[in-house]
Amino acid sequence: MLTSIKNNLNYHKSLTNLKKLPQIPSDMITLYRARSFRKIILEKIKVAKKHIYIPVLYFEKDDSGKEVFEALSLSKKREPDLDIKIMVDWYRAKRNRIGESNNQLMTNKDWYHLLSLNFSNHEIRIFGIPVGMIEIFGTFHLKGIIIDDSVIYSGASISNLYFHKEKRHRYDRYHMFHNADLAKIMKNFIDKEILRSPAVQRYDIDHKFIKFRKRYTNQFRKRLKKCHYQFKNIASNEELSVCPIIGMGRRNSLNRTILNLMGSTKRYMTICTPYFNLPVEMIKMIRELLTLGKRIEIIVGDKTTNDFYVDPKKRSFRWINILPYLYEINLRDFVNILQRFVNNRQLIIRYWKYDNHSYHLKGIWIDSNWQLITGNNFNRRSWYFDLENAILIHDPMERNSNQIEKEMRFIQLHTRSILHYEQIENICSYPEKVQRRIDRIHRTKMDRLIKMVI
User: Fold this and answer.
1) Per residue in 69-116, pLDDT tens?
2) Which positions fall inside the PLD phosphodiesterase domain (predicted)?
């Protein structure tokens, strides 16, 4: 017992020792709908004076992408000195969505160059960021749209699906911080640590000038593993504060903070993740917390809400579409092992499903005073390979409790509780095509590699 108390204090001390920035409560806004996320981005772009930085996994060539780009162009026309930069993952921009042919359709990269020709009077620079030597071993997963002194933070990218422009949408979390220090720190990191690298190249120029630079990319990746947001501690542990964190690689500061955050739990913890493929370190921490009597709630999407899910009856079903089933198998095994904690309601598992919408939520809530807002999926790929960031919120006086409670009500609205592992489908109930492919993956032991890199 004394050891567990000491460990809890050590975890808590690690959090309180983090450098933090003061945050005015009224300048931190939680948005609850995808359409509100779209609206606030367009509103902020419209009145921007100094700079607009948009780091996203992808900036899609659809109506939403065009809408945002046109808004950027109008702002540039209004404010000629406005510094506008869009940063996307190097690999994601060069291919179409899974299931689409790259040979028949224009890629996002092609579209970026076309935009530069059509809007040649308004320089809007678009950069491809190569975090890994190949896509499966690292993607650019940085989040936080910086517009002057504000940061709009979400795990969402720019697309119709994320903006809820059509009937179906991908549900994420959306927050806005009006905080000049936070915006400056995140912008400076992009300027100094990302855009200065010779591995990073502009995607809005002619393709013949764009070449993958292996040596520079390798150097870039090594340097990113050692990078941190640079700032001084100007907030106390008695006030509402925010702490930007960035990391890449297994032992990075973001991963350490996630474990310290979990370990500091006094009463209860809530985790949202779209893919149940948690790193071993997080699984061990959950088991330890349950053993110590803590209450844990995990909200995960039903397999049909996964962005890799495709009906097995469709011709477009491919090997990659096995992933939601593998994640469900992970969850079933996890609940089976910890069923006794589910029985006493110490461990609560919720499945999210709402019509045909997809689920992309991630985050951690600890007791009533710590919250992690992040684009990190808490899967093994994000833990080991991707460039990830987050904003840790410390709210010791619970000034933001109303927003937290309202957001959680929205999240839980379309969930159902799993009371027994047998409520989760097993392999025997899957379509025959899925069973055959899973069996083949198990026999070749490829499932371990797949879970590690996707």
Assistant:
1) 999 999 999 999 999 999 999 999 998 766 555 555 789 999 999 998
2) 136-162, 355-382
Same domain, 170 and 220: yes
Is residue 230 assigned to a domain?
Answer: no
Task: Give tens-digit pLDDT for 309-318.
Answer: 999 999 889 9
CB under 8 Å to 450, separation ≥6 — which residues?
323, 326, 441
Q: Give one DSSP letter per residue of 316-334, joined into a string.
A: T--GGGGHHHHHHHHHHHH
Q: Catalytic: 333? A: no
Write the CB contacts of 16 (distance below 8 Å, at least 6 apart in sequence). 237
Q: 360 an active-site residue?
A: yes
Catalytic residue among 12, 113, 122, 141: 141
CATH code for position 259? 3.30.870.10
End-of-domain residue from the set 194, 224, 254: 224
Do 177 and 261 sit in the same domain of this protein?
A: no
Q: Identify residue 94 by its one-letter amino acid code.
A: K
| Amino acid making up residue 439 | D
Q: Which of 60, 172, 302, 386 is catalytic?
A: 172
Give the domain range for residue 179.
26-224
pTM value is 0.95
Which mean pLDDT values do the consecutive 10-residue runs of the chain (454 residues) have? 66 95 98 98 98 98 97 95 97 76 74 86 90 88 98 98 96 98 98 96 80 91 96 94 97 97 98 96 97 98 95 89 94 98 98 97 97 97 96 97 97 98 96 93 79 68
Decide: 390 and 378 in contact? Cβ < 8 Å: no
Q: Residue 172 catalytic? A: yes
Domain-embedded: residue 434: yes
Say how many domains are in the chain.
2
